[in-house]
């Protein structure tokens, strides 16, 4: 209702409840300016916050941004960053409500996203029960594959390798499938930010269950497979343990008929932790302090 220009913004809340999530991005930790343009960083920073809102079953409405910038940062880079935020928000009908700017040695972004549940019950991590199925929507492994190509210095200007690198620079969360899952009766859900195994571990712990995954059920994208072939890597490692794709992982009662775009990849059982049947996955995901 009221955007930048005053001391605070005003956001309409039709549902009466507000879903809130926040993330911090640091240059050199979450992105590199020699690998990603300002536009890429804007799209990525917006996407990872909007995906958190969608993972609760809500529709994103707005972002508030705290921004630290070096004094010598080119204005063109900042303009591109702003365009990236605007374009990613436009994909879900949200907008930037305001924020703050300060001088900093590195580029630092603190992004807070707001969302509206639209009368739906929020989907938490604690509702998984034995007998339910685990399904994923969106791309998995792209961000990790793209990072590995950039880290290895592999030329990736076109074709499938370029598609993988683009997955690192700009994730493509399936935003609409969060509210869709809530409407279908999802009992638990989250976005895949630190790696599927690690993130599903949060569901297992919160729900007091074990998640059993079938590695053969996971779709492996052509770009991920091409990057793995180029680097001699196992693509399933990226799919299961690579983070920052911001796909959605959800748990549903077994009788729910899932629409196109959802892939059943496992089930919920009694026990604890996450089990990948028949595979020993060495890397379990991203640990900020590991």
Automatic annotation (TrEMBL):
Q: Where does Mg(2+) 5 bind?
A: 194
Q: Where does substrate bind?
A: 30, 244, 286
Provide the binding site for Mg(2+) 2. Answer: 23, 52
SUPFAM superfamilies (UniProt xref): PurM C-terminal domain-like, PurM N-terminal domain-like
- Residues engaged in binding ATP: 99-100, 125, 193
Sorted alphabetically, which keywords does the UniProt record give? ATP-binding, Kinase, Magnesium, Metal-binding, Nucleotide-binding, Thiamine biosynthesis, Transferase
Kindly report, in one word, the top-level EC class recorded for this enzyme: transferase
Q: Does the keyword Kinase apply?
A: yes
- Origin, by domain of life? Bacteria
Q: Where does Mg(2+) 1 bind?
A: 22-23, 100
Q: Which pathway features in its UniProt record?
A: Cofactor biosynthesis; thiamine diphosphate biosynthesis; thiamine diphosphate from thiamine phosphate: step 1/1
- Write out the similarity annotation: Belongs to the thiamine-monophosphate kinase family.
Q: What does this protein do?
A: Catalyzes the ATP-dependent phosphorylation of thiamine-monophosphate (TMP) to form thiamine-pyrophosphate (TPP), the active form of vitamin B1.
HAMAP family, sorted: TMP_kinase (MF_02128)
Q: Per its UniProt record, what NCBIfam families does this chain match? A: PRK05731.1-4, thiL
What protein is this chain from?
Answer: Thiamine-monophosphate kinase
Biological source species:
Nonomuraea monospora
